[in-house]
Amino acid sequence: MVEGSSSIPNDLNAFWMPFTANRQFKKNPRMFVGAKDMHYTTSDGRQVLDGTAGLWCVNAGHCRPLITEAIAKQAGELDYAPAFQMGHPKVFELANRLVDLAPEGLDHVMFTNSGSESVETALKVALAYQKAIGQGSRTRLIGRERGYHGVNFGGISVGGIVANRKMFGTLLTGVDHMPHTHNLAKNAFSRGEPQHGVELADELERIVTLHDASTIAAVIVEPVAGSTGVLIPPPGYLKRLREICDKHGILLIFDEVITGFGRLGTPFGADYFGVTPDIMITAKGLTNGVIPMGAVFTSGKIHDAFMSGPEHLIEFFHGYTYSGNPIAAAAGLATLETYKEEGLLTRGAEMGRYWEDALHSLKGTRHVIDVRNIGLVGAIELEPIAGAPTKRAFAAFVKAYEMGVLIRTTGDIIALSPPLIVEKEHIDTIVETLADILKSLE
Ligand SMILES: Cc1ncc(COP(=O)(O)O)c(C=O)c1O
After folding, report:
1. Nearest to 305 by CA among 295, 319, 316, 296
2. Buried b (16+ CB within 10 A) or exposed e, 344-382
3. pLDDT tens-digit readout, 261-291
4. Keywords, A to Z (predicted)?
């Protein structure tokens, strides 16, 4: 080893951590060194209950044997195959399994390595499709305030999180945003879909009137906005977006990076809400978060629009070195097998009822201004400390970690999304720990 700080174990300086308060972390690090099923093990030997499925991704729980064995086997058999102009059987098998699982009509899949790459892929497919069918003037993309679509330039352009956008210049041009659907004044403490706000979908009509439909390629939304604090749409909202898109020849893209793979108690959010998009973006739960992989589903109509011209030519100029990597494909197949064997893609529907009651028992607890839930997702919104937004929720996060529960916070919202193998006693532990913390917090 080279002499110097880099050879010192646990020197925390070199790694510039993502979406992390680096200086705070490095003063008082929180390190995981192991994981099994519902729990992490910390470097000081404590068990921490995973209330967030890692980052909304470890849907089947940690270190599941089918998945870890499939990865090890694949790594020893075929480690890598070129993604362009070459294939390997597992990636085709995974694509077939995925389209079988997806809502009817989404029958083609492209692979990526993350949610952010899936978003960029979907936006590019949408623009290129419009051009391919002779609608090249449709170049605008419509997102939504408080939407999160990863961190790349397309994603932050259609996304609506100010902190993720404001440092990075003018972003993509020709983007507009619908309003978000979060309305505490009318919908606080809703169970499942909140009652008010379906008319917010009509804002899309207003945007179409402003720009003209002939300039708009696609609308992108998360069925349930996750990263900005679990914003659940009112009944009929997504259906109305679908109708408006159909009326105007606009593609509808669902970003299901969080809602995909069982989070809402159905395989996809599209199933939960009974609305099928033209393009569906996934990642995270696709491989149980174990190996980076994303998948973008498209309708046959979109795929077929590109399948013309001389057969020796590439139809769509896009792809990644690691698209459909053999080890990721093996992990994906084993993950789908685990979900199937254990009924995890619908488990959130039954467990969701216990989850809902448990979370809503926090109504009336100090600082709590809203509790909301859907499937196995929940959010507890806290009154911010005057002049110090996010501080109270962050203090809750640190305290929960110390008390053995991993939660996630975004702004002053605690977002919860346990692995889909969660049992009632785990839910009780999460809720009781939070109740204790909230009572003691400033
Ligand atoms: C809806 C949504 N889209 C995209 C992303 C980005 O995924 P990744 O972090 O894998 O790039 C996320 C991540 O949380 C997400 O929630």
Report:
1. 316
2. bbbbbeebbeebbebbbebeebebbebbbbbbbbbbbbb
3. 999 999 999 999 999 999 999 999 999 999 9
4. Aminotransferase, Pyridoxal phosphate, Pyruvate, Transferase
Atom of ligand 1 nearest to the CA of 115: 7
> Does the beta carbon of 225 sit less than 6 angstroms from any atom of ligand 1?
no
The strand pair at 279-282 and 294-299 is best described as antiparallel
Output the average pLDDT for the chain.
97
**Cβ–Cβ < 8 Å for 171, 188:** no
Please work out whether the CB of residue 260 comes within 6 Å of at least one atom of ligand 1: no
- Taking the CA of residue 283 as reference, the ligand 1 atom at the shortest distance is 10
Between helices 326-342 and 65-77, what is the axis angle to 10°? Answer: 160
Structure tokens at 97: 């399994």
Gap between the Cα atoms of 426 and 418, Å rounded: 9
| pLDDT at position 3 | 46
Per-residue confidence (pLDDT) for residue 2, from 0 to 100: 41
Determine the 3-state secondary structure of 306 from DSSP. helix
**Domains of the chain as residue ranges with CATH:** 5-51+344-440 (3.90.1150.10), 67-342 (3.40.640.10)
> How confident is the model over 94-110, as pLDDT tens digits?
999 999 999 999 999 99
Q: How far is the CA of 115 from the centre of ligand 1 (A)?
A: 4
Residue 200 in contact with residue 210, Cβ under 8 Å?
no
Query: What pLDDT sits at residue 442?
Result: 85
Identify the residue whose tokens are 């995974």.
94
422-437 pLDDT, tens per residue? 999 999 999 999 999 9
